[in-house]
Write a structure and sequence with these properties.
With 162 residues, this protein is mainly beta. The protein has one domain. It is 15% helix and 44% strand. The chain is built from two helices and eight strands; from the N terminus they run αββββαββββ. It is elongated, with a radius of gyration of 19 Å. It holds the Pfam family CreA.
Length: 162
């Protein structure tokens, strides 16, 4: 092995360790078996603009690989008050905004969470997705937090389509 390739390998290992150290609140670590280095990690993430919402993200961590698998799951729930002033501060466009990002490899692949406000149905949507295409599609997962019975709930009738 040349000195350059050893240096590159060490740099890659340090970058991977640095990225995993920046994770959120890890709440679970499940081994996938005795003969694998892959684990399921579950992390809690509080929405930075709406602290009354907590999301749990599950994803695979491959300890000895330079890239983690793209599969992930997300579940978000109301865990505190959600107020109208909180909603007024968020991006209310159809594409929403990225509120969480974590690297899944040394090159280009990342896990993102985007929050979208569905005003018509008074629901917050959280989409987790991989930025790298895998077998012809981008891996993604969706969860929603209805605003019903929160301080932010507005009485309005949803008009049925058609």
């Amino acid at each position: 092995m040349t000195r350059c390739s050893i240096g590159t390998l060490l740099l890659a290992a340090m970058a991977t360790l640095g990225l995993t150290a920046c994770s959120n609140d890890e709440v679970a670590d499940v081994s996938l078996g005795l003969f694998t280095t892959k684990d399921i990690k579950v992390e809690a993430f509080v929405d930075p603009d709406i602290p009354g919402v907590t999301c749990h993200i599950s994803h695979i961590k491959a300890n000895l690989n330079l890239a983690d698998p793209s599969d992930m799951g997300i579940a978000c729930r109301q865990t505190g008050p959600i107020t109208a002033p909180m909603l007024a501060k968020i991006d209310q466009s159809k594409s929403g905004e990225v509120i969480f990002k974590a690297s899944k490899s040394i090159l280009f692949k990342s896990l993102k969470i985007r929050r979208i406000y569905d005003q018509t149905h008074q629901t917050l949507l959280y989409i987790s997705y991989s930025t790298k295409e895998v077998q012809g599609s981008h891996k993604h997962s969706l969860t929603s937090v209805p605003l019903y019975n929160t301080e932010a709930w507005k009485s309005q009738q949803v008009q049925p389509a058609g």
